[in-house]
Amino acid sequence: MDFSEDEIKGIIDSSLRKNDLKEKYEFAITNIFNQPITVSQNFQNEYFNTAIKDLITPVNALQVETLHLYIEDKNYIIKKMGGLIAASIFFTCIIISAFALTIRTMFKQKNLSEIKSDFINNMTHELKTPLATISLAIDALVNEKVIHDVEKIRYYSGMIKDENKRMNKQVEKILQAARIERQEIKLNLVELNAHDLITKVTDNLQLQIQEKNGTISLNLNADKSLIEADEVHFSNIIFNLLDNAIKYSKGNLHIDVETSIAHNDMLAIKIMDNGIGMSKETQQRVFEKFYRAHTGNIHNVKGFGLGLSYVKAITEAHGGKVKVESALGKGSTFTLFLPFHPED
């Protein structure tokens, strides 16, 4: 090697500048026997273990010499590639997030598809039954034996009227759900006695309860019962909760309806049954639109899965809330919390 230490340093400096490296370094040049020929001022023997090695003479040269370059900042490569590594991590996170979002969307679409199929099946079943009854009643009305019998004409005409009302109610439920979603429901808030309305609704359901050989107990013990509510919608939410208790009942149906004053100074209305109960998963989703608890046969309990979503929406529209507590095989408890009338 015919270069001086300063000349070698100048060559190394030039090479490092070309690669945009500004770290401090030390160097040594060794011969074929690893004996130092030229060494920078602060180069130490332990640097040989971590230094970058590069052959600076041809392999078949008479004097094979190796450059040992020790860079003091061991993280210079990481610093040099820091931006590229950060960009790689950033884009990897974006790809993973996009993949996770795609999978989530696929599962959500699958769930929506299942809900849609269940809703169409239920709607078809709910409308097909009254249509079949109407069709049979019409056939009976044109029968020669019936057409001249006034009593039978009244009977079958009444049947057609009842089934027509039933279909209208089902269609109204669907339209009502759409109006709630678009927030088009307008409440006619008036001063109401909650106890009186609860009693009225339970009286109207006595026939259904008796058909199930069931009983209902009213414990309306709240000291205050005046609320500001829409009479029609409030009656509907009580009806829906009681109707659900009847639908999902088992043997020896019994329903308890209690009122009390909650700790947040609201009227608490509890509707408790001893029916089939619900799993934790069902409790989390029971207020979702079109969701229906699985009971083995999709048609053994009629409905569209709109009742409880309506209860939640209307209760919240009144400034209240609703919660459910349940256990499989042990029944369910729905609790409504409604604000009192300001003057009560």
Would you give an account of this structure?
This protein has 344 residues and is of the alpha+beta class. The chain has helices at residues 5-18, 76-80, 82-141, 144-147, 150-181, 194-204, 206-211, 231-247, 280-285, 307-317; strands spanning 25-30, 36-39, 52-55, 66-71, 189-193, 215-220, 226-230, 254-261, 266-273, 321-327, 331-339. Helix 3 runs antiparallel to helix 5, helix 5 packs across helix 10 (307-317) and helix 8 (231-247) runs antiparallel to helix 10 (307-317). Residues 296-301 have low confidence and may be disordered.
Mean pLDDT: 80
Radius of gyration from the CA trace?
Answer: 41 Å
Decide which structural class fits the backbone.
Answer: alpha+beta
Spatial strand order of the main sheet = 6-8-9-11-10
**First-to-last CA distance:** 105 Å
- Strand/helix succession: HEEEEHHHHEHHEEHEEHHEE
List keywords for this structure.
344 residues; alpha+beta; five-stranded mixed β-sheet; four-stranded antiparallel β-sheet; 20% strand; elongated
